[in-house]
Design goal:
elongated
Length: about 280
């Protein structure tokens, strides 16, 4: 990449005006910026999906009730598990992703002699960070569902896991869908911190371009527009998904079965023998 930048530097002259420099950067480095944007989207989307799965698992475990009738072993195990999950959530919600990236990427090599690849480290960091935030969102979504539905599910013989997967979570998912979309938008922007571990995403590519000609303002202007296009596009898509999940504004009663008709099917005999 350095040789490529040097060859362009030697063979091209940088325009003096602002828009001329923008066009020059797009002509010579547009491919690198698009490739960086593609990496940004891939990491953000995959990290958000895996993070949502982690969040749902943690949220379900955190919502498992412990009653006085439960055995002592279950009480102890659940207390330990919930304590570990609480520490995980608090640590990753209370520290910046940039610090987490450097701690995990470099710390794993120093402490455990684990040399992660750039892709694995990027997916892992974004996923566990998103999972910490999503776990609290899922827990709040579960608590937003009326307790009567959980009691009704248990009354017909469902276990806690069955009541969660078949009754509670489908409704909670609709309630927390805006937050899932918000996490995706945040991840698209926050992947820029992964440049500290050598991830060649959009911000890393922008820094490389800007450092070649010292066009920091022009290069970052292009990056800002590219980030804005990506976030606005996915915001619109997620709003369409939310609207689809809400269903139609009104619901008509299905009356294919004659027993479901609300009127006109029941007749009463009058005193004269006619129908009323």
């Amino acid at each position: 990449m350095i040789d490529y930048f040097s060859s362009v530097l030697n063979s091209s002259s940088l325009p003096a005006d602002f828009f001329g420099r923008i066009i020059f950067i797009l002509q010579n480095y547009g491919g690198s910026l698009l490739q960086g944007a593609g990496t940004t989207l891939l990491i953000a989307i995959v990290g958000t999906i895996i993070g949502c799965i982690i969040g749902f698992i943690v949220g379900i475990i955190q919502s498992i009730p412990v009653t006085k009738r439960d055995s002592m072993a279950k009480k102890v195990i659940m207390k330990i598990v919930k304590g570990i999950l609480t520490i995980y959530v608090e640590v990753f919600r209370g520290t910046p992703m940039m610090v987490q990236a450097m701690f995990i990427y470099y710390g794993s090599a120093v402490l455990f002699d684990i040399n992660m690849t750039m892709w694995f480290a990027a997916f892992l960091i974004v996923s566990i960070n998103t999972g910490a935030y999503m776990s609290e969102t899922v827990r709040g979504g579960i608590l937003s569902i009326d307790n009567g539905q959980i009691e009704g599910a248990k009354a017909i013989g469902m276990t806690h896991l069955q009541s969660m997967t078949n009754v509670i979570l489908p409704q909670a998912l609709r309630n927390i869908m805006p937050q899932i979309g918000n996490n995706l938008i945040i991840n698209i922007k926050d992947t820029c911190v992964l440049s500290v571990i050598g991830t060649v995403e959009l911000f890393f590519a922008t820094k490389s371009v800007a450092g070649t000609y010292y066009t920091y303002f022009e290069a970052n202007t292009i990056a800002m527009v590219m980030y804005l296009i990506m976030t606005v596009f996915f915001s619109k898509v997620l709003r369409l998904v939310e609207k689809k999940m809400q269903g139609p504004a009104d619901y008509n009663l299905a009356t294919t079965d004659t027993l479901a008709h609300t009127s006109g099917m029941v007749h009463f005999q009058t005193k004269r023998g006619g129908r009323k």
